[in-house]
Write a structure and sequence with these properties.
Length: 340
């Protein structure tokens, strides 16, 4: 076998804005393992700036040692969960393909066979109020029953007016609204803002205050009239070590898993076991991966019969992308070219 690693840059069609800044390009490393028979397995390693804990210097140094990584792949002796989670994700993706023996197939389930779809939310990126309103309406008219909006960068009154406009057009029975603050609020404004959001009948708010502010987050979860979901707060944590602190002390309503950022499917699976034990809801979210990583995460989601809408992107944000195995039918994601 031969492991090849190449760096790629994907350019966004338009800047992807969050409360932490806007992304212009998406940098990733493509790992390609070619067998002696000429079979090619691919995976991506794509840490996300401002969110990932991966050290770029350590990652680049590790990726240069292809002989070591190839040996680790063949023996299964690798563990980068808490040091280089994006690399852990990539190696797990390759390992699963090698085990099954079919390029692009990581999990054998109804989704990967093309027999079932996955309900996903429609994502509205930060922009001016009118643009976000039109984008949310377009998602709803396209068949999405759940729309997620990024908040925390505009004037809060404007964001409230946006939500008010959406609720005038779509009642909670017709359209579920989620908001994601990406940790933009603090102790001075979080409680007042959460109180103001109550009237919009929101499904949840992701990460209202920064990760690491455990005492504040616990207070927010206890007092918020809007159910709170933890997202960035899970990055860098170990579910076996940290689950009790998160689920019993902080007590969020939901957990949100980004496999690329938290250390792969093995870590996400462990978190799901803990969430079930403590009767917490969860959903998965992609983290601006290319179509290669997105397909892997979607197949993993297919392992679980989760009735909540998943936060899977569509790969349509980039000017050029790798060929996709995925297709949207309304709000459902399907395998367009199901594996046998």
């Amino acid at each position: 076998m031969q492991l090849n690693i190449q760096q790629h840059s994907l350019r966004f069609l338009k800047p992807a804005a969050t409360s932490k800044g806007a992304y212009q390009t998406r940098e990733l490393w493509l790992l390609q393992l070619i067998t002696d028979e000429g079979i090619s397995y691919r995976a991506e390693c794509a840490p996300l700036p401002h969110l990932s804990i991966d050290s770029v210097a350590l990652l680049e140094a590790t990726l240069q040692d292809t002989e070591m990584l190839q040996s680790q792949l063949l023996t299964g002796d690798y563990n980068y969960r808490e040091t280089l989670p994006a690399l852990q994700f990539a190696l797990e993706c390759l390992s699963r393909q090698i085990h099954i023996g079919i390029p692009g197939l990581l999990f054998e389930n109804n989704f990967s066979r093309g027999a079932a779809g996955i309900h996903i939310n429609g994502l509205v990126w930060m922009a001016d109020r009118d643009t976000m309103f039109q984008a949310a309406c377009a998602k709803a008219e396209a068949g999405f029953r759940c729309v997620k909006l990024k908040v925390g960068a505009l004037d809060f009154d404007e964001e409230c007016r946006l939500l008010e406009d959406l609720r005038r057009r779509y009642n909670p029975f017709k359209l579920e609204l989620r908001v994601d603050a990406n940790g933009a609020w603090n102790a001075d404004d979080a409680f007042e803002k959460l109180g103001d959001l109550k009237r919009f009948s929101l499904h949840s708010i992701e990460q209202p205050v920064p990760a690491g502010a455990d005492e504040l987050m616990a207070e927010v979860c206890a007092k918020s009239p809007v159910p709170v979901a933890l997202d960035e707060a899970l990055i860098g944590l170990n579910p076996e070590r940290d689950a009790l602190r998160i689920l019993q002390d902080i007590r969020p309503a939901y957990l949100v898993f980004k496999p690329t950022l938290i250390g792969g499917f093995s870590v996400a699976d462990a978190w799901i076991q803990q969430a079930r034990k403590h009767h917490k809801g969860w959903w998965a979210t992609s983290a601006l991966e290319s179509n290669i990583g997105l397909s892997a995460i979607a197949q993993w989601c297919g392992e679980y019969q989760n009735t909540l809408h998943q936060g899977l992107g569509t790969g349509a944000l980039f000017e050029e992308n790798f060929p996709s195995t995925l297709n949207l039918k309304g709000e459902e994601m399907w395998m367009e070219h199901p594996v046998p």
